[in-house]
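Researcher: Quick test of sequence recovery. Tokens follow.
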């Protein structure tokens, strides 16, 4: 008979082991980093980044304090939309290397303790995917894998007025099937038909395949576009003065092609698949992150229906360089207040579809980086933002690669192109910025690389990169940042924003002066009870303020455009969140 004491010890050790395996919500305070594989590091010298290149540079993530990376698609693809047109979800495109290269990358990330999240693109495939080829050929099983419809006017016109995100009709006629297929994006990206149960099964199998490979989660692409309204009615035409050409996506109100309620159920379905897998394998929880450009209510639904991180793009889409502190406060507060209980906040500052921070916020790039790191939860960094890379605005029409821009004309392409924010990472001042040895890189590297590069910023007393490192280190050591309360305040006639994080006796406070020319003096006595002095942990580069200097809490001087992070010991105990 097992004694009671032994039984207790046994139970305790099982709990410990289980605790080790089930490190629930490991992403709670993580910094995620988006790697755009074509542009991160080129190992084989063909001018395009690859998996071996990423593996070569994994130590960079440790150095920068990044806990997890998410990879834009690396699957087989004709590269019409640079990997977002997938011709086989289970193989690696030769541009990026082989499955063996990925295995090696995963071995090394596991050793270094870096999480890896893969992009999952359910809305569409490439027209080169065998499912589509079989669908075109009318093979019974695959006939309804895609959205096929008869056209109007004796099949001579598209079935309705829908417009593709990449301009022009969202339907393409196929002679062989004598039908039109739906493509919400490029015409070589046919939309899958999720009314077909076989498509669900394929998607779940794909998730399990990659989980078996050892990845830590998925970023789910373009989820709002997956289902369309039954019956395929015309969408209302809207007048939009931003409209560039008549067949522009902005000309319609997308009430039938976006935000269908069934999209949320898909998240629940995939959550279940992923959780069943982790339970069966007694593995750590996997993260699901959703990409949805939609309103706050819908964004919160993604959390409710099973996403761990419903990407928060609101600091990209809802505020800009002209916004006031009160507008920032509103965007921050509404996210926190509306988030379902127990979920983790997140702050995305950039991605492969959006202009870079330094270009969106000239002279204020650090302000945005600091903000994302001081706010509670997950910070999401797009590659290159740790050194404040800028958009390459000199890319010409001839050099343009992005299908979204190629589908318009030389006059309008600049308004749509995503190429400027996808150029190679600037590692150093050598040839191709240390990214490649090729004569030409797939997108041109901006001339500023001789100055603006990682090597040049490393180890400097102050640089964008050192600021980034200081912030990630602070996140990993500060209890106030990990578990503390959040208070947002607007001061000095809506010219100063205060982000106040406190836990027990520790306070970390971010102060931002939004004015370009007026210096402000701020009194934080009410915020920091019992503190008369605070330490400047950091300030934006070029602020002229010495890091680790002391300030008086009752009169903190904030020169124009300055962002300051302070540390203070305070009285009283703030309950941890
Ligand atoms: C997502 C991606 C974007 C891509 C589109 C189509 O929005 O972020 O880059 O073009 O999906 O897959």
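Model:
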């Amino acid at each position: 008979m097992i004694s009671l004491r032994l039984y207790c010890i046994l139970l305790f050790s099982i709990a410990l082991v289980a605790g080790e395996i089930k490190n629930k919500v490991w992403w709670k305070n993580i910094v995620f980093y988006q790697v755009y594989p074509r542009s991160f590091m080129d190992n084989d010298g063909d001018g395009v980044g690859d998996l071996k290149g990423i593996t070569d540079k994994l130590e960079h993530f440790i150095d920068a304090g990044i806990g997890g990376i998410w990879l834009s698609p690396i699957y087989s693809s004709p590269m019409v939309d640079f990997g977002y047109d997938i011709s086989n979800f289970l193989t690696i495109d030769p541009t990026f290397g082989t499955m063996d290269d990925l295995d090696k990358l995963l071995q090394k990330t596991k050793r270094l303790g870096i999480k890896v999240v893969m992009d999952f693109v359910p809305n569409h495939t490439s027209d080169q995917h065998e499912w589509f080829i079989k669908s075109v050929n009318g093979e019974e099983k695959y006939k309804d894998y895609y959205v096929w419809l008869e056209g109007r006017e004796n099949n001579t016109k598209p079935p309705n007025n829908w417009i593709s995100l990449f301009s022009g009709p969202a339907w393409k006629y196929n002679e062989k099937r004598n039908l039109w297929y739906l493509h919400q994006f490029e015409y070589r990206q046919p939309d899958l038909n999720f009314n077909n149960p076989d498509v669900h099964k394929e998607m779940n199998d794909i998730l399990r395949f990659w989980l078996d490979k050892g990845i830590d989660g998925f970023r789910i692409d373009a989820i709002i576009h997956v289902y369309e309204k039954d019956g395929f009615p015309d969408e209302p035409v809207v007048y939009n003065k931003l409209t560039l050409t008549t067949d522009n996506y902005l000309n319609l109100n997308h009430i039938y092609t976006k935000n269908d309620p069934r999209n949320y159920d898909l998240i629940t379905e995939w959550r279940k698949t992923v959780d069943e897998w982790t339970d069966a394998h007694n593995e750590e929880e996997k993260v699901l992150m959703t990409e949805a450009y939609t309103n706050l209510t819908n964004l919160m639904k993604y959390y409710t229906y099973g996403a761990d991180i419903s990407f928060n793009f609101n600091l990209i889409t809802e505020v800009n360089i002209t916004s006031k502190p009160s507008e920032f406060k509103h965007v921050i507060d509404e996210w926190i207040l509306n988030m379902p209980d127990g979920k983790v906040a997140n702050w995305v500052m950039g991605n492969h579809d959006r202009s870079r921070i330094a270009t969106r916020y000239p002279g204020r790039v650090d302000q945005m980086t600091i903000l994302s790191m001081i706010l509670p939860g997950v910070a999401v960094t797009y590659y290159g933002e740790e050194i404040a890379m800028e958009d390459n605005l000199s890319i010409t029409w001839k050099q343009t690669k992005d299908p979204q821009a190629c589908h318009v004309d030389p006059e309008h392409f600049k308004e749509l192109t995503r190429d400027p924010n996808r150029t190679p990472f600037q590692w150093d001042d050598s040839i191709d910025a240390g990214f490649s040895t090729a004569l030409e890189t797939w997108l041109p590297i901006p001339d500023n690389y001789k100055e603006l590069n990682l090597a040049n910023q490393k180890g400097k007393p102050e640089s964008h990169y050192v600021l980034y490192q200081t912030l990630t280190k602070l996140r990993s050591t500060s209890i106030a940042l990990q578990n503390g309360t959040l208070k947002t305040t607007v001061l000095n006639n809506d010219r100063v924003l205060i982000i106040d994080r406190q836990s027990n006796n520790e306070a970390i406070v971010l102060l931002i002066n939004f004015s370009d020319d007026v210096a402000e003096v701020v009194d934080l006595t009410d915020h920091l009870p019992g503190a008369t002095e605070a330490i400047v942990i950091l300030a934006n580069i070029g602020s002229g303020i010495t890091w680790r200097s002391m300030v008086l809490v009752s009169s903190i001087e904030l020169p124009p455009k300055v962002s300051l992070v302070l540390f203070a010991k305070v009285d009283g105990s703030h309950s941890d969140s």
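The CA atoms of residues 163 and 169 lie 5 Å apart.
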